[in-house]
Specification:
This protein has helices at residues 14-25, 47-51, 75-80, 86-97, 110-118, 133-145, 164-171, 182-190, 194-197, 202-212; strands at 2-7, 28-31, 68-69, 100-103, 121-126, 149-158, 175-179. It has 216 residues and is α/β, with parallel strands linked by helices. α1 crosses α8 (182-190) and α1 (14-25) packs across α10. It is globular, with a radius of gyration of 16 Å. One of its GO terms (molecular function) is ATP binding.
């Protein structure tokens, strides 16, 4: 199973949710944002190297509370990366580990569309702000065009109860509220997924609810 975590624009908390949903699914999370990597890096080969034909995908696996395939952070690495290699790279990781979560770039550029095309399913991350819904709708349409079935929508960093029924109706998928919680915001940098660090928190319960929507 390959799940794409996508958002219509940057800054909606897509990376933190990709990391935490991967923890709930016991999956590998792949940083597929070739130009704006956010997941922790480390020594050794990364996704840029794989897409340049210079490393095997399995070499890039970085063990941790959530196993990560980091992406490079250099402009030269991004330029050398050939997105046509992404499908075979992710398939190799899926064969090795069984479940993969792709942290996708924001927007509708080609580098955002390719991870969606590789995925079996898509989770859409949405800001609770009303004006952000239009960006989410455009990403949903892209996912539909690429046959990445939309399994759910995460309304992220919520401080006041949003109109989830209206959002679900607009996007055509169940909407789950992920409350604002600083532990989620710190989870990637500290490598402490909230489903482990704060198992009984509302945010952890929301993440597990999102994970249950993903087909196995």
């Amino acid at each position: 199973m390959i799940l794409a975590v996508a958002g219509g624009k940057g800054g909606v908390g897509k990376t933190t949710l990709a990391y935490n949903v991967a923890a709930a699914l016991d999956a590998v999370v792949v940083d597929a944002d070739l130009g704006m990597a956010d997941l922790p890096g480390g020594r050794g080969p990364d996704l840029h190297d794989v897409l340049a034909g210079e490393a095997d995908p399995i070499e890039t696996l970085r063990a941790g509370p959530v196993d990560i395939v980091p992406c490079g952070r250099t402009l030269a690495g991004a330029r050398a990366a050939d997105l046509r290699r992404l499908e075979s790279a992710v398939a190799a990781i899926e064969r090795e580990r069984g479940a993969v979560v792709l942290d996708c770039p924001a927007g509708r550029r080609a580098d955002a569309g390719v991870p969606l095309a590789v995925a079996d399913a898509c989770l859409l991350v949405v800001s609770p702000r009303a004006f952000a819904l239009a960006d989410a709708i455009r990403t949903r349409e892209l996912a539909r065009e690429l046959d990445a079935g939309l399994v759910g929508c995460a309304v992220n960093r919520v401080t006041e109860e949003p109109p989830t029924d209206a959002i679900a109706d607009t996007l055509g998928a169940p909407a789950s509220v992920v409350p604002a919680d600083p532990r989620v915001g710190r989870s990637v940098a500290e490598e402490r997924p909230v489903v482990n660090a704060a198992r009984d928190s509302a945010a952890a319960k929301a993440v597990r609810e999102l994970a249950r929507r993903v087909p196995r």
